[in-house]
């Protein structure tokens, strides 16, 4: 068998008893375990998903390996590495690579070639996001930009939470005005 620049480590085998058992579509590969990728992977694990965490840095993989279902030190810019890891069998993959735009684009392209049905990719700029969209990535995320917009909405009004899910649509959690709750209105000064 040929040797590739990756090693597969098995982390936590089963979800804890309070978590539902993952179904076939609750498996995700998270490529890039920086702040964004590791936070995403840990939250998915907390929700009962099987997570394969992949990064090129062995120290980062070691740091998160005990908390993930599987982890691997691998360079996913090589399509054969993705195949060896079985990423083509996953229904979802997330590219959390941010600082290396070339690697982000190559890995995203490799996931498209592997026909992963649901691909999410982090972009660090609008231009990077545009390139990912042109490749055909299903979901492009600009975390800093999107969080900035969300916090701006929270700071400027009565909103407790704000999530925009399309250009003209958002889900807003707010404090209802007294008139809507039936409470008497406060006297005006």
List the strand order in the largest sheet: 1-4-3-2-5-6-7
Unreliable residue stretches: 1-22
Note the overall shape: elongated
Number of strands: 9
Q: What is the residue-averaged pLDDT?
A: 81
Q: Count of helical segments?
A: 7
Please give a structural write-up.
Strand 6, helix 5 (126-135) and strand 7 form a beta-alpha-beta unit. The strands form two sheets. The chain has a seven-stranded mixed sheet, sandwiched between helices. Strands 8-9 form a two-stranded antiparallel sheet. Helix 4 packs parallel to helix 5. The protein has seven helices and nine strands; from the N terminus they run E-E-H-E-H-E-H-E-H-E-H-E-H-E-E-H. Mean pLDDT is 81; it is low at 1-22. It is of the alpha/beta class and 189 residues long. The protein is elongated. The protein has helices spanning 35-46, 58-65, 79-85, 101-113, 126-135, 143-156, 178-181, and strands at 7-10, 27-31, 50-55, 70-73, 92-95, 118-122, 139-141, 159-166, 169-174.
């Amino acid at each position: 068998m040929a040797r590739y620049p990756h090693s597969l480590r098995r982390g936590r085998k089963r979800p804890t008893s309070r978590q539902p058992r993952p179904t076939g579509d609750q498996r995700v590969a998270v490529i890039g375990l920086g702040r964004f990728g590791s936070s995403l992977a840990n939250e998915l694990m907390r929700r009962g998903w099987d997570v394969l965490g992949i990064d090129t840095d062995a120290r980062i993989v070691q740091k998160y390996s005990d908390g993930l279902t599987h982890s691997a030190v691998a360079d996913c810019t090589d399509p054969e590495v993705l195949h060896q890891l079985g990423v083509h069998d996953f229904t979802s993959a997330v590219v959390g690579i941010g600082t290396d735009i070339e690697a982000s684009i190559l890995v995203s392209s490799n996931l498209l070639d592997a026909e992963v049905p649901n691909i999410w990719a982090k972009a660090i700029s609008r231009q990077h996001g545009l390139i990912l969209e042109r490749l055909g990535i299903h979901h492009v995320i600009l975390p800093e930009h999107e969080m900035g917009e969300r916090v701006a909405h929270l700071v400027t009004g009565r909103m407790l939470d704000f999530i925009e899910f399309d250009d003209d649509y958002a889900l807003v959690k707010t404090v209802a005005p007294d008139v809507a709750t039936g409470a008497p209105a406060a006297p005006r000064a």
